[in-house]
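Memo subject: From amino acid sequence to discrete backbone structure tokens
Keywords: amino acid chain, backbone geometry, structure tokens, three-dimensional fold.
Body of memo: The sequence and its backbone structure tokens, given next.
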Amino acid sequence: MENLPRCAPAGDYCPSSTDTPWRLLAQGARDTLPMIIGAIPFGLLFGALAVGAGLSVWQALGMSLLVFAGAAQFIAVGLLGAGAGVAVIVLTTLIVNARHALYSASLQPVIKHLALPWRMGLAFGLTDECYAVMLRRLEQGELGEHGHWYFAGTVLAMFSSWQLCSLLGALFGQALPNVNQWGLEFALVASFIGILLPMLKHKPQWLAALVAGGVAVLTRHWPYNTGLLLATAAGIACGVLFEMRSTAKEPS
């Protein structure tokens, strides 16, 4: 994201002296609330499914605390329930979470000046929801000197709510009828689509999304979700090539 938007006179947000760390932290948490509302049922269902797959309440909560990646957690629980080995679970979740490397790369201008502990903490807490909130906020202008506190606010809000929902689901989720038949797979896909669509504003982005989605569907039967890697690479390549070609055609 070398071309992160800068302050402009057209009404874009510009950092001011009133943007203290604590204020930005609170703003980040506030802007994450809509994402939290959407994630609540998934946190509850994860806790219920984890216990149903044979994990204890504390093991389920431990997975949320240490992994903190909803899609990967659901996949890991499903593989555990199917009796998959540790190597298969680790490899599959690693592939599914490979997208986070792209998230981190695009947010690098915001965190590159930070000390290692800050960067490690924010990297650990970077989820799809937090990334969407950050992108929306950066479209309004640069965050300024203390912008990483806004990032921290999104992470803390999402992390704490996910832990609470996972715990409640693990404690009380088994009282819900037929949890395994709730069509969770489609619900997860729908939530990702809901996060993605508002970000698609230009032709290269739409092309990248369509190509990646098409390749992902065609390779859905590949072992350990390795098709996701090909889909990601294909989407990025097509989007970048289209943008380069469009730029080359523009009059100088």
In short: Residues 200-247 form one domain. Residues 57 and 147 are 36 Å apart (CA to CA). Residues 1-13 have pLDDT under 50 and may be disordered. The radius of gyration is 20 Å.
